[in-house]
Amino acid sequence: MWNDRKPVSRDQPPASLPAGDGAAIKALAADIAQRRPVLFLDYDGTLTPIVIRPDAATLHPDMRVRVQRLAARCPVAVISGRDLEDVRTLVGLPGLIYAGSHGLDIDAPSGRALLGEPFRPALERAIARLQGELASVPGALVQPKRYAVTVHTREVEPGDKPIIHDIVREVLGREPELRYMAGKEVHELRPAFDWDKGKAIRHLLDTEGMSAHFPVFIGDDVTDEDGFRAVREIGLGIRVAEEPASTAARVTFPDIPSVGAFLDHLADALGRLSP
Predict the structure, then answer these.
(1) Which long-range contacts does 129-133 make (Cβ < 8 Å, 24+ apart)?
(2) Engineered SS bond to 192: which of 65, 79, 138, 179, CB 3.0-4.6 Å?
(3) Is 257 exposed, middle or buried (0-12, 13-18, 19+ CB in 10 A)?
């Protein structure tokens, strides 16, 4: 069960972490364990490596066990750009909070929130146009989602990538209800709605009785920066990045194994604190 200790003051958040320092990761986890944490986790690039085809991004059994152990000791939410049912299937664990489509589709104990539903017609039109116009570009992959459409370019020749950018922008110009977001080798169209992972985190803290918890958000992409900003003053943002990058997160882990080590140490520390 999630521990019910009183929250520790958040006025003095943990200091930044030297990337790749195993002892520092353990110390950070021990410090956070004292603060009644709630974990918000991105999926791709955070719990599992980025792969060429998104349907091949399976979760390693060891990482699944880590998340499961941690969820027995504190609240855990997975917040992904993937469809909610897609990420729920990939993680394969009951008892977690799941948020798909960058928080536009949330399934939590208080109920299901389908915030992107009014934008479905515009997305369906954009999906059809992108599939038609990008069919002739080798390597381009159009991934329809419930509340977004993502175009993957990892298998596209460098000379063809500007063509994809122009086509996505042209389709966007026809659909004022949508907005554009770029990520790692992806172009995405999503609802032009003032909502993102950061607002989803704040929403969950308020609606799920976790406002007194210390929120930790771990992500790897520019699409996770909203989440880092949302927790910066009340918790901790951790970015997974091989190279230094400008980020609102205050801690950087160099790779996914570091994420796994942190989850292990945090579960162990919380277990030692349990009555």
Answers:
(1) 129/171, 129/174, 130/167, 130/168, 130/171, 130/189, 133/167, 133/170, 133/171
(2) 179
(3) exposed
Residue 246, pLDDT above cutoff 70? yes
> Which residues are annotated as catalytic?
42
CATH topology of domain 35-66+73-115+195-273: Rossmann fold (3.40.50)
Q: Domain residues of the chain, as ranges?
A: 35-66+73-115+195-273, 117-191
pLDDT attached to residue 8 = 42
Q: Give pLDDT, residue 3.
A: 40
Cα dihedral 29, 30, 36, 42, rounded to 10, equals 10
Residue 32: CB atoms within 10 Å: 24
Q: Is the pLDDT of residue 19 over 90?
A: no
Q: Does residue 5 register a pLDDT over 50?
A: no
Rounded CA-CA distance 190/180 in Å is 7
Quick check: 125 pLDDT over 70?
yes
Query: Within 13 Å, how many C-alpha atoms sit on residue 189's CB side?
Result: 30
Please give the helix or strand (H or E) that residue 19 lies within, else none. none
Task: Report, at the CATH architecture level, how domain 117-191 is classified.
Answer: 2-Layer Sandwich (3.30)
Token look-up 């116009």 returns: 133
What pLDDT digit, counting tens, does each position of 64-81 carry? Answer: 999 999 999 999 999 999
Cβ atoms of residues 29 and 73 within 8 Å: no
